[in-house]
Amino acid sequence: MAEGKKKGLALHWQILIGIGLGVIAGIVLCKITPYDNWYKYIKWAGDIFLRGLRMIVIPLVFSSIVLGVAGMGNSAALGRIAGKTILYYIVTTALAATIGLTLVNIVKPGVGANLNLAEEVTAVGSGQVSFIDQIVSIVPSNIFESMAKGDLLPIIFFAILFGLFMNKVDEKYSGFLNNFFTSVYEVIMKITMFIIRLAPYGVFAIVTNVVGKQADDPRALLSMAGSLGVFVLVVWGGLLIQGGVILPLLVRLVGRQNPWRHISKMSTALLTAFSTCSSGAALPINIRDSQEKCGVSNKIASFVLPLGSTINMNGTALYECVTAIFIAQAYGIDLSLAQQIMIVFTALLAAIGAAGIPMAGMVMLAIVLSAVGLPLEGIGLVLAVEQLCDMPRTCINTYGDSCGAVIIAHSEGEELTI
Ligand code: ASP
To answer: CB within 8 A of 386, min separation 6: which ones?
Structure first.
């Protein structure tokens, strides 16, 4: 791609062009030669981009939370912001799940779906974690193990503790630590910007690979096209209501900002989430643009966004609900109201527990299904369209976090630049 020509083009346009060219390249390459012959020459560029983003997530999250929490100075401010953040997350995620539940009950995409086409799923059941286990695992037994494994919740827990207690030690130590973490944070942000500039190329490679993979074996997608098509439309419809109506309304009414300008300022982060299916990958961009373009303070952005990227997943919660009911419908199982409420509740927990990585919601689906006794192999039904669902739900996950940062910043009296 000619670098000179793109100088003036905004990054999100470059990413969109990368997606478009990726779709064309994936189809054309498959016409020329089978997927297996070419994918390795393309895929590596996407892998490097994704690894680059993941590389910076842990140091970025850790240093930004420590600074954010320590910057709040006293625990009353932290308590207040944390309280608002958690309330916002719970309310919006519950709303998303309820929208999904309502739509899937109205449209009933699973009724009459052909189960013979379901693939066998064997490994997903191992992803089950009980609610108590989830709570306990927030406290790390070894912070370095959590960092090595990329478990964000324990890292966030430790970073909050670290930031809190940093304020309680002698000035000469806390001053040093503040300087240290600010320096780390600044360097990591510079690396982030460097990696972000590679996004159009990375996204091109990822999309080419994804399209090529399916174009090579279109049967898997086509065979379930009927009911799965409607299922995907329900997921998209629900996400559209959450992302196009509910969240913008909250930004307008509670955050007192223009929601469309906010979306346009966050477009790089949203498109990154959409194309990479990873809200963790979009997190560095979300943090940068929330601060630089929207004027959210580091204090709020560094607390609300990393926490949100792991526990606030509007899109994932909606998806879990729609999918669980869809599978029940496909198996001809009638769910009682109590069972449906149970699905909403477990969908919330599943969304909290899902990592900000591709297909995490699919793995967490096992928890939701077993909570109401639905067959796990039902997941095989929706595997074929996972990519189509993961992309938009990740986008809404990231958007929900960004709205949270704006709303909470406004409620704290910050001057925003949206
Ligand atoms: N891919 C989603 C994300 O990164 C998680 C999911 O699979 O639902 O936010």
So the answer is: 359, 362
